[in-house]
């Protein structure tokens, strides 16, 4: 507990971190007492479908490939996860890497954006898929977990050198607000976006609005933990968007499709 407080203070005392922490604090105050979690969870559960049958309807061979990839990652990651656990560090993540890998292989995107890297389960899935596709770039936005000592060293720790060496990964760690200023430039259009960083409602809605002009016309947007609040529900219903919801380990992932052809019934 004392160590966590000390780590938070160390982070806060760094000049660029003070603004980020202050912004987080203000948002938290704003959303205090407005928990929508119960309604959001019930809605997500009522919409939830089976991710495995979604994938097999689109491409059953690719689903088998995805299954092998997930087995490999889990097997490879055991020593690192154990070492982190030994130090009392749990970076979370990893729930939906099958879906992320599958969609990146299926859509063969030129550009992928993800927010929230932590240990790098999702980044690993994207980078492996892009490597198999032999094309594509990944932009990743993160903010170090300031409750951990020297958190930067753990960002993307699971990603093997063979994927880092491909040099198609741009990892920025100044928080989404800052990082997106660098990413959202020029003629770039993202085909896949995975949002798994700041889970507050206002942050999600701000992000969704900000990313709209940067999506290509077949883009797929994946949002983690939609059971936390009503951001995803309100967004998809207000724009009558095509979407799906999947359950992963008691949490819910939402996917928004720009075109209906990627939405097998
Ligand atoms: C659930 S973890 C991401 C897990 C990751 N996608 C995976 O599959 O391993 C959330 C990450 O988002 C980061 N984060 C929190 N707020 C953020 C913000 N405002 N901007 C960027 N990253 C943020 C956290 O520090 C953490 O690294």
Q: How is the main sheet built? A: 8 strands, mixed
Task: Report Rg.
Answer: 18 Å
- pLDDT below 50 for ≥5 consecutive residues: which ranges? none
Q: Describe the global form.
A: globular
N- to C-terminal separation?
Answer: 49 Å
CATH superfamily: Vaccinia Virus protein VP39
Number of helical stretches of at least 4 residues: 11
What fraction of residues sit in β-strands?
15-25%
CATH architecture: 3-Layer(aba) Sandwich
> What number of structural domains do the residues give?
1
Written as H for each helix and E for each strand, in order along the chain, the element string is HHHEHHHEHEHEHEHEHEE
- Kindly state the number of beta strands: 8
SS-derived structural category: alpha/beta
CATH top level assignment: Alpha Beta
Roughly how much helix do the residues carry, as a percent range? Answer: 40-55%
Mean pLDDT level: 90
Instruction: Spell out which ligands are present.
Output: S-adenosylmethionine
Q: Quote the CATH topology.
A: Rossmann fold
> Main sheet: which strands, in order across?
1-7-8-6-5-2-3-4
Outline the structure in words.
This protein is α/β, with parallel strands linked by helices. It has one domain: Rossmann fold (3-Layer(aba) Sandwich). 49% of the residues lie in helices and 17% in strands. It has eleven helices and eight strands. The chain has an eight-stranded mixed β-sheet with strand order 1-7-8-6-5-2-3-4, sandwiched between helices. Helix 7 links the parallel strand 2 and strand 3. Helix 4 packs across helix 5, helix 5 packs across helix 6 and helix 6 runs parallel beside helix 7. Bound molecules: S-adenosylmethionine. S-adenosylmethionine binds next to helix 7.
